Amino acid sequence: EHQGQGQVVTCSGVYADGSLRVIRNGIGINEQASIELPGVKGMWSLKAGGSSSGDGQSAFDKYLLVTFVGATRVLAINEEDELEETEIAGLESEEQSLLCANVASDQILQVTPKEVRLINASSHVLVESWKPEASSSGNEGSIGSIRITAATCTENVLLVALSQGQLVHMELQAGKLVEKSRATMPAEISCIDIGPKTQEGVQQQSTPAFACLGLWNMTVVVCSLPDLRTISTITLGVDVIPRSSLICRLEGVLYCMVALGDGHLFTFVVDEQNGFQLTDRKKVSLGTQPMTLKLFATNGSHHVFAASDRPTVIYSSNRKLLYSNVNLREVTHMSSFNAEAFPECLAFIQDETMVIGTIDQIQKLHIRTIPLGEQPRRICHQKESHTFAVCTVSSDFESTKDDNEINYVRLIDDQTFETLSKFQLDSYEHACSIVSCAFEKDEKHHYYLIGTAYAPPDEVEPARGRILVFLVTNNNGSISLDLVHSKEVKGAVYNLNSFNGKLLVGVNSKVQVFRWQQREEGSWELANECSHHNHILALYVQSRGDFIVVGDLMKSISLLVYKPEEGAIELLACDFNTNWMTAVHFLDDDTYLGAENSFNLFSVKRNSDSASEDLRQKLEPVGQFHLGEFVNRFRKGSLVMQLPESGSSAMKTLIFGTVNGVIGIVASLAPEKYKMLHKLEQCLNQVIK
Fold first, then answer.
1. What is the pTM of this model?
2. Residue 543: closest CA among 582, 497, 490
3. How many CA atoms lie within 13 A of 687 on its CB side?
């Protein structure tokens, strides 16, 4: 998926009920309204006049301020509960806003690059403004060049960052902006936040005590308030500028978060007892684009929304930060919008559209169905062309008198899931396997390869098949699937694997390696390099380096090795038990996972270190598990966001799919974790009778 979020796409259903199912794990957004709004640079919600004065006139947001390059617009909920453009007279609408908020004494604060404006929230009259030029005494040489670059506020305090690294601390009073202190940082300030802020239901000091600044020299500075004295400076050790900082209290723990321009996030725990020092530094990757952090409340608890190309909700559970995907594509800006018509909603800017919606309480699996009207049999994704190739079977019995099924290869866009092109296979030709790969000596092209079998009614076993090589081409926006080569083989092509720049194929009882070579006239073709016979039917083939694991129809699992110098495939070891295999996969170099038709999973291990030749040729069963499900596919991957946090290695997982539509996970545990869980299992068995 473009956003890097884990998702599984499955072939599901039979005949005309066939569909693709897209399964993602994450927090869902229930859309309430949307509006086209291109070019948005920031967004804030505002309450109507009287709401900040404590008289309870309005607990709900009424306005949504949206800012663009050189303009700020106000959207308001009208009497028909519709969002329409309106005006707040005191707002500067011909400037981009850096910050808008309701503040103390029933006022609205607006910060633009040129000035700070204080507006009466009831009468919408401008009551006070402050410009950086006017107060830059003794610095006349740079008057006019000093601009406001960032700002943050609470109900009573405003902190603005000016160009040339200046920082100004102001108090917000009734109709007044009172400058309290000023400091100069060693570099330009890129982002700023103050804390701890007062949050509903939590007794905290209302006066913020410190500020967290991100600087253009890739450092984070913590300043005390109100004197702006530098408490500590932390070098991030990266060459990307901090873009957003946030101080927030989650489950009683005060955090400082700093988001970078490349999608990385630094989190610190603030030591309140020790002069607001930043401790417990952690770094996670949440995306690849610049990220902005916003605090929002839902159901009385606070969470952080990280808006980027992979939107994420950061929340705390058992005083530990957890990260959940949000099932939206790239989100550039976000604001909470608790309006009477849209209670506890959030507003997002996504793909030049504003979406208003509520957010799910829990992370769960979201399943999207894309009906095909045909039964999908095989699917493969090609990252380079942003497409899926899907092998489908159309059972239109009315148009084909002899009940023959028509097989197609469909090219489908991986974002919109529209069919871009399709290719019809021959009569009685069935698609058995599919892979996307590039070949050595032809790396610039990525091909789809389809393995087929001819199954006419008078043949018990397929005697011939084809390997079809397709290239996705784009002619002036028209995307097509072009057949560039066809290779006839003697049997059904049950498996195709990309194999060290070559092609690894399972054809009936043979495992073959093909190379991609150029003919004299310049076209390319598949040429047989070597093969291995010793199977009943090589139904499932997987490779890792030069090692090949084969799941046979009856003869369990075999381990082969390809020797490129000799151009040969040799048998290394095999499992001498009889298992009718349904799927096979590598767990590591010496351990292999299999599924068989009695609904069991089992693993076998190679005795590679044994001194005995006989033991080295034997795969020993080391694990067995009765699943009760017919597993027909293993795939590497995970449905949850794997965060490479410092000091923790990602757990290796395989996803499996079953005939009944079940999706499960097989995880490889570290030995110490396995021993602990095994001991727990034994103790539970003793206690629970």
1. 0.69
2. 497
3. 6
